[in-house]
Amino acid sequence: MHRPSKQRGFTLLEVMVALFILAVSAAALSRAVSQATESTYQLEIRQHAGWVAHNQLSLVLAGAEQNLDGFSQFAGQSFYWKASIATTELKNFRRITIEVSEKSQPDYLLAELTGFQHE
Predict the structure, then answer these.
(1) Which of 29, 49, 88, 107 has a CB 3.0–4.6 Å from the CB of 111, allowing a cystine?
(2) Which residue spans within 23-103 are E strands per DSSP?
(3) Where are the chain's structural domains?
(4) Are 88 and 94 in contact (CB under 8 A)?
(5) Could you tell me which CATH number the domain at 12-118 has?
(6) Cβ atoms within 10 Å, residue 1
(7) What is the pLDDT along the chain (119 residues), one digit of tens a residue?
(8) Sign (positive/negative) of CA torsion 92, 99, 107, 77?
């Protein structure tokens, strides 16, 4: 008489469930890494836009920039900047606001900086 041997290994169902769990975990990890990468890019481009705003405000305050808008290259990226100058309630002071966006998306504001100048 032949005795049945003990079962060794996993059943097909167990392997399929394990592979499904692994696939779902890998997809979730991939999505998390993708979102982290996009967030890092957005932080970087906003930081660069802030520096462009500081540079342009400095040029306007120093009188070296006569234009109220233009394009600027920074860290290999193209930015569009726009300056607006307004009077204030204080006599002989004016408010200068610099808005910066990507050249490819001029309506999407990345940075805004305001300074004041004594005339």
Answers:
(1) 49
(2) 69-74, 77-87, 93-102
(3) 12-118
(4) yes
(5) 3.30.1300.30
(6) 2
(7) 566 667 678 889 999 999 999 999 999 999 999 998 888 889 999 999 999 999 999 999 898 777 899 999 998 999 999 999 999 999 899 999 999 999 988 889 999 999 999 87
(8) positive
